[in-house]
Amino acid sequence: MVRIALGIEYDGAGFAGWQSQSHGNTVQDVLEKALAAVAGQPLRVACAGRTDAGVHALAQVVHFDSAVLRPETAWVRGVNAHLPPQVAVRWAKEVGAEFHARFSARSRAYRYVLLNRAVRPALLAGRVGWFHQPLDIAAMRSATACLLGEHDFTAFRAAECQAKSPVKHVYRADIAAQGDCIVFDFHANAFLHHMIRNLVGSLVYIGKGKHPPAWMAELLQQRDRKRAAPTFAAAGLYFAGVEYDAGWQLPGAGRIMTPDSVLLSNP
Predict the structure, then answer these.
(1) pLDDT value at residue 263
(2) What's phi and psi for 149, nearest 5 deg?
(3) Residue (of 103, 2, 99) closest to 48 by Cα position
(4) Residue 62 in contact with residue 47, Cβ under 8 Å?
(5) What are the b/e assignments for 115-145, b being 16+ CB within 10 Å?
(6) What Cα–Cα distance (Å) separates residue 257 from each residue in 35, 75, 204?
(7) Which residues contact 233 (CB under 8 A, 6 or more apart)?
(8) Domains of the chain by range and CATH?
(9) What percent of the chain is helix, strand and coil (3-state, nearest 5)?
(10) 8 A C-beta contact, residue 173 and residue 196
(11) Exposure string (b/e) for 207-231, b if CB count within 10 Å is 16 or more?
């Protein structure tokens, strides 16, 4: 029995999220089906971070155990031959039995790409979020300062979140402008369900002038989801990478990374 780690990317627009469901229209379902075609037997995978319907991944990491030996190239090119175009394995590496895609992760990163212009996207529909009114990037940047460090993020937690604790440590919360796009980058030890989309929703409220930057700190202190802004659209959210101990010697795509430049170009 060997344990294999995979780095994968996917366009989540046409999927009902990561986690396997009875209808089979999830990323996990199509990946396990492709792996089974190469292995000649069913295989189950565990991922670093589950994504919701419509959410994408630039550098998702999964692992599986197999009693069937295959070269690492077969777990890449062979599996890709059985995957739909929206999903691709980028690398494969044999790892020790102690490795776990989720529990061995030291931190994770998400990126939200928001198109900020009067007209909705066409070519990037499903790949970026959209807001039609001009946003004050300086005000939003000021609001993110209170997010750094360890905090209780109950105000940005989905009701169905299954995390044992709402307390997370945020290492990075950056906002940058690129043409008509505003890019939100978050790096933390872990994230709550809908946490990034809820943070972006509240930052957009600040950016459009509905609330001052200090409102973000108030939301953290109040710990009341009902006081924060509605959950923002899934389309612009990307699981951007996972950080593991260097001793695992995973390829570069298995660590924190940034998306392809097309996601940052001026539509």
Answers:
(1) 45
(2) 95, -170
(3) 103
(4) yes
(5) bbbeeebeebeebbbbbeeebeeebbbbbbe
(6) 25, 22, 25
(7) 54, 129, 130, 197
(8) 2-104 (3.30.70.580), 107-238 (3.30.70.660)
(9) 25, 30, 45
(10) no
(11) bbeebebebbeebbeeeebeebbeb
Catalytic residue among 52, 152, 174, 260: 52
Q: DSSP states of 134-165 as a string?
A: ---HHHHHHHHGGGSEEEE-GGG--TT---S-
Torsion of CA 150, 156, 159, 161, to 10 degrees: -40
Ordered alpha helix ranges (H), the chain: 27-39, 72-73, 79-80, 137-144, 195-207, 214-222
Can you tell me the distance from the alpha carbon of 91 to that of 125, in angstroms, rounded to the nearest whole number? 28
| Amino acid at position 106, single letter | R
* Tens of pLDDT, residues 23-62: 879 999 999 999 999 999 999 999 999 999 999 999 999 9
Instruction: State the Cα–Cα distance between residues 249 and 71, nearest whole angstrom.
Output: 18
Write out the two tokens for 170: 């945020």
Calpha distance 215→143 (Å, rounded): 8
Secondary structure element (H or E) that encloses residue 7, with its range: strand 2-10
State how far the Cα of 51 lies from the Cα of 49, in Å rounded to an integer.
6
Element (H, E) at 92: strand 87-95
Q: For Cα atoms 57, 205, 209, give the angle at the middle one, nearest 5 degrees.
A: 140
**Catalytic annotation present for 174:** no
Segment 197-220, tens digit of pLDDT: 999 999 999 999 999 999 999 999
Provide the whole-model pTM: 0.92
Amino acid at 60: Q
* Token pair for 22: 């009875």
